[in-house]
Amino acid sequence: MVQLNPTHVKAVWDAWNIRGMVIISLSIQTILIILAPLRKRTPNRFLALVLWLSYLLADWSAIFAVSLIARNQGKDSKQDDPPQDKKLMALLAPFLLLHLGGPDTITAYSIEDNALWLRHLLGLALQVMSGAYVVFKSLPNSLWLIILLLFIAGVFKYLERTISLYLASSDKFRGSMFKASDSESDETHNPEKEDESVHLQISTREYVRERRPFKLEKPSGDLTHLDILQFAFWFFNSFKSLLVNNIFSSDQRDESREFFSKLKDEEALRILEMELSFLYAGLYTKVSVLHSWVGAVTRTITLGSLTAAFCIFHYRPKKVDKFPGADTVIIYTLFLVAIVLDLASILMVIPSDWTIAIFSRLNEDGQDSGSQIDPALNWFLGLKKLRWKKQKCCEGRAEHEVLNTPFLLKRWAGSIKMFNFIAYSVNANIERIHDAKGKKGRCVWEAILLPFKCIIYIFKKLCGGIIIVFHVSNQYIKNVINKRSGTNLVARYCIVIAEFLIVIPHHLTVIGNYITKFLGIKDLLAKNSLKNSVHSEPLTKELWAFIFTRLQCKRQRLDRKERSKTKPGKKGWASSNSKLEIMDPEWLMRYIADVDYARSLMLWHIATELCYQEEASPTENCDDRQFSKILSDYLMYLLVMQPKLMSEVAGIGKIRFRDTLAEAERFYKRKLIENSRDVKRATEEILSVSIQEDPRLFKGNHSKSVLFEASELAKKLKGVNDSGENMWRIVSKVWMELLFYAACNCDATARMNQLSKGGELLNFVWLAMAHLSLEY
C-alpha cells in the first residue's frame, strides 16, 4: 500500500507551486482568447460558465503566482536549491504581468466591470512594484535585459486593458459625447488642437471634411455590404451615448429618422446588427484602443519587446547547463505562446469590421464611386452576410425564411427565446413553430441527448420512489409497533429510532430550504427549473419585416401629426395603447389601458395561447397568428427569465406569475389534469369555466392571478371574427405595442449585458426606435 509522505508532498509543492501556477495562468489566457469571441454568437450556458470562471481565475492565478515568487525571493537559499532558481523566478514575474493584461478578445465580462478601471490602474501599480521587488531580490542577475524587455511588454499590455475599461465606462461615454457635440458646433474647429482624449474614444475615426454641414443620404439603389458597414459605423459613432441615455441634437435625430424611414427591412436589420456588433466590441474588448494611435504604439512596443527578449534568451549560450530542462521548456512555452497569441490577436483585428470601417470611406451623398479596393472589401463582407433558409412552420400552412447564418460568421445568436406559461404549468413538451436544425438534425440531436435524459428521468423516479418508500414504511412501522408493543420499553425505543431515521429526508429538505434562503439563491434555483421549458426559435425575415414596417408606419403617423401641429398625447403604457386602429376598441380598454404593463402582458399571453390551441381557420392570416404566438412567448420569457432586463416595466410581474401558476395548478388538480403534458386539453378546461363562476373557488382573495380573466378575454377575442374583423390582426397589434413599450423602457445596463450573451431581438427593436425617434 502506498503511503503519503508529508515531507515528500511539501518538497513537490515547493518545487512546482510557482511553475504550476504560471502554466495554469497561461492555459486560462489561451481559453479566453479562443472562447471569448464566441459569446456574442450564442447564449449557451456552459460557454458562459467556462468564460466566467476563466475570467475570474485569470487575475487570481497571476496575482497568486506573483505573491509566491515574491515569497520565494524573500527566503534564504537552501543548499539543495538550484543555483539559478531565484534568477529564473525573477524571469517568470513579468510573464505574469503580461497575463494580467489579458487577451484582446475580452476586457470585461459584464458592463459593470468597466467601472472598475481605476481599481485595475491601482492593480497595475501594485503589480509593477511587486515585480520590481522580485527582480531586486534576484540581483545581480545576468537575465536583467530579458526581464526588462518583458516588463516593458507587460506594463503596456496591462495599460491597454486599463484604458479599454476606462473608455468603455459610462462616465467616459457621456463626457465624450459632450465634447463631440461641442466640436461639431464650432465652425472654427482645428483638428490639430483637438483634445487627445477624443482620439481615444470608442470611435477612433474622425471624418475631417470641408466646412459644410454633413448630410446623410441613402443611395438610390440597394445598399452594398460595404455601404451597410460604413453607415453602421457612422451611426455607432453618433449614437453610442444611447448607453447612458443622452439626448441628441435635433439635427442628429432628423438625419437618422429620415435615413431609416427610407430603408428596406433587411437593410435596416443588417445596419442594426453591425451597429450592435460595434457596441459589443467597444464595451467588452480592446478594439477601441487597438484602433487608435495609442494602440498602435503599445502593440508595436509589446510585440517588439517580446520578440527581442525571446531572441536574446534563445541565443544565450549555455542556458541548458544553467537551467533545469523542465524550466527551459516552460520558458520557451511562455515565450512562444505569448508571441503566438499576440500575432493571433493582430490577425483577428486586421480583417475585423472595425478595421474595414476605419480604412474605407463613407459614401455620404450616394454619388461617390469609392476606391479601387472597395469591390474586394465588399466581397469579403459578403461572406458574413445574413443567410436565410425557407422552411415550413410545424403546422405546414405557411413557409417562412428563417435566419440560418453559419455559427462562426454570426454577429449575434439570431434566435428568439420563448417560454409558454400553460405548457410549463402542465409540464408539456416543447412545441416548435420553426426548427432551424430541420427534422434530420433534430432527430440526431435528440438521439444524442436521449441517454442523458434517460439518466435524469431514472434518477428523479428513483429519488421519488425512495421518498415514497420511506413515508409508507414510516406509517406501517408506527401502526404495527404501536399495536403490539404495549409497555415494552425496547419496542418504544425502536419506534423513536425508526421515526428519526425515516424523517431524515424531511429534515434534509428543511435544512436545504433554510440554506438556500439564507444564501439568497432560492430565486436562482427556481429560475434554473424554468429553463427546461425555454426554447429558441430562429428569427424569420417575415417577422422582422412585420416589426420594422410597423415602426415605420408609426413614424409616418407621428410626422403627419407634427405637420398638422396636433398636440401629442402623454407618454405611458395606458396612453400609448389607446388606439389600436380597430372598429370597436372600447371593450379592449379593460385589458389594455386600465391595467399595468405586467398584468396586461400576462393576460394577453394566456389569452393568445388559449386562442392559438384551437384549430386555425383556413381564412385566418397565418402570419399574424404565428407572429402573435412568437412575440407572446418571447415577451413572457423576458418577464420570467430576464427580470433585470424588464425591471423598469415588470412591476410585480414575479408575484403575478407565481400566483397565476399556483391558481393553474389548483385548477388542474381539481380537473385531474395535473402534469398531463397536454396543452390542448388544459386550454379547453380553462375555457370551459363559466365567467359567472366565482373565481375564489380557484384563487385566494389576495391573489394576483389573471388566469380566468385571460379566459374571459380569449372568449371575447373569438367573437371578434363574427363582427367582420380579424382576431389575429388585433392580437398581433397588441403584441407589437407590448414589444415596443418594453424595448423603450427596459433597463439600459441589462440591455447592454445581453450583447455578450448572444444578443436579444429587444436590442434591435430598441435601436431601431431610437433611430426613428420613437418614444413611449
TrEMBL record:
Keyword match Lyase: no
Domain of life per record: Eukaryota
Keyword Membrane among UniProt keywords: yes
TM ranges: 20-38, 50-70, 116-136, 142-159, 296-317, 329-350, 447-470, 490-515
Domain DUF4220: 52-424
Keyword vocabulary terms for this entry: Membrane, Transmembrane, Transmembrane helix
UniProt-recorded name of the protein: DUF4220 domain-containing protein
Biological source species: Arabidopsis thaliana (Mouse-ear cress)
Lineage: Eukaryota, Viridiplantae, Streptophyta, Embryophyta, Tracheophyta
